[in-house]
Amino acid sequence: MVVASISRSSVRRALLKGIGAEQIISFLKQHCHPQMYKLSSVVPRTVADQIKLWEMERERLEFTEGVLYKDFMSLHDFNLLSNYASSNGVLIYSDERQRTMVVTKKGHPSIKTFWKEEQAK
Fold first, then answer.
1. Residue 82's closest CA among 105, 106, 111, 113?
2. CATH architecture label of 66-120
3. pLDDT per residue over 3-32, tens digit each?
4. Which among 26, 37, 97, 110 is least surrounded, fewest beta carbons within 10 Å?
5. Which compartment or compartments is the protein found in (predicted)?
């Protein structure tokens, strides 16, 4: 009988050190007990899948620096600016119900200029 304990925290520590899920699985296959080679799968598929899921979990967020726009006086103003930002490819997030949007930091100056021109009309 072979007993091993692989925890989420131990896999996360390895991932933080730059060791990938495939490397962990490969290590387990290479350093298993000789009796394990008689089995069809040295590392159970569920174990390998879980290690890969923990790696994917770590990579699921993407951070983007942006500028928040909120407290629009009217839905029309919000939609006008949101559509402009979207058409210029600088819109990161938009919530019509809360009248909140986030644009890229690079896109902020053009949004600001557009808004001032619209206000002058």
1. 111
2. 2-Layer Sandwich (3.30)
3. 778 999 999 999 999 999 999 999 998 888
4. 97
5. Nucleus
